Amino acid sequence: MPSRVVITGLGVVSPIGIGVSEFWNAALAGRSGISAIRSFDPFPMDGYRSKVAGQIHNFSPEQYLPSHQADRIDRYAQFALVASKEALADADLLMAKEAPHRVGVIVGAGMGGMVMGEREITQLYQQHKPQRVHPNFIPVITLNSASGIVAMAYGAKGPNLTISTACSSSAHALGQALQCIRTGQADVVITVGADASITPLVFAGFCSLRALSSKYNDAPERASRPFDRGRDGFVMGEGAGALIVESLAHAKKRKAKIYAEIAGYAATSEAYHMVIPREDGEEVATTMRLALKAAGVTPAQVDYINAHATSTTIGDAVEAKAIRHLFKHRADKIAINATKSLVGHTLGAAGAIGAVASSLAIHTGRIHPTANYDNPDPVCRLDGISRSVQERKIRTALLNAFGFGSNNAAVVLKKFVA
Amino acid sequence: MSDRAIAAKIIQALADYLKRDPASIKEAHHLRDDLGLDSMAVIELLYKIEETFNIQIPDQDLPALSTVGSVAAYVQQRLTPAKPVPARTPKKLAPSRAPKKPAPTSKKKKR
Question: Are the beta carbons of A396 and A412 closer than 8 angstroms?
Fold first, then answer.
């Protein structure tokens, strides 16, 4: 039997709260963190079809990080540091007491250091002065900058990996943390998902893909509406989630509190299309089935799904179809929610923030509402989706995450029973 | 620009970078040993200095720039129109204050 792995600490930086307690209170209240983008100074917003996003307005890195550290890293890595710091404190994990090579870091990031990346690229192309490209440009945009920075901050000398599978990045990071511990490479993995790319170029790119909501520019808080009939695309968000993942033996030894157990994980490729999922939902259903099998549980034991649910017309329909296909008559009995209805789609951070919400749901028995689920779309109707908090004893939960590149991930979390 | 003004600007850039009081930074301070700048930090400082004084510092000039004073002296030389210092100045620069005489030309070919 594979060794047991548990979640012992949580951290989050999100548009509805910096810190788990602020995030969770806002989530239970169903509060939307979506607002109008004021401007991409010096760009006016006129040229953008979508003008709303889940931005974190009150984040000042100096409040959380020493200024020499904050200055040198991109916004997504700042988020990663702040979230991981909270998670370590929450887990009461003292690095001084740990064997450094037994503590790893796995970060999921989809876009990486785009704030500085875009600025430097723009300046070079405008000014034609290659000698004025900032010396920190390469270290900042290298996609594993956050995982390196997190390891350096805490002296974590175990496996240090970055997983970039677009919107499923940090669900994979969580799954890989599980494997890393099960294969004996580490006792603890600081697992993070982070992205901060609500930047002029990336935002324009998603607009051009016609992937973003544009119908609710005048009512931003209504724009992210997974499974609702009025949904018209996802809303970009930014943030980070962090989870301290450790072997049960290690957690027991230091008498850590346990939020949930990570029981299984599946990673698949649809090998189908760069940005469109297979419409029959077969591949999504297969991914969930494989994850449950890996966890040694049956579909009948699943009580809760933290859905990928981005609020796109096709994506939500495919996921709902897959859930119905896999769980058959039980599909309507499973509580389902969409964290993206609150924070938008945080890309590489989405899996980790969803995992924080799932861990809290398992731990507290409270499932946060799906905001803006006003008018259920018949093509993705599932009775377990609700605008209100659902109280439920959760034995087994599924976390779904799907990414561009035909990429699917599902992670099975369980209530920890000794 | 006077030697003193150049040195003051460099010290200010260092103070901004290191987030410390400019008064605590002396020209004799070694960038690494006294001020704790690692090689990456030195590169960032020089990037800032290139911008401040609108000069370009070639790679081969870097080894000589080890103290606050040597950086100030180097910048002073580069800004002196009558005696433009060619790209290569491997000759050791004065440890503090700007040298009044440029490095001997014969040494400039060494490398």
Answer: yes
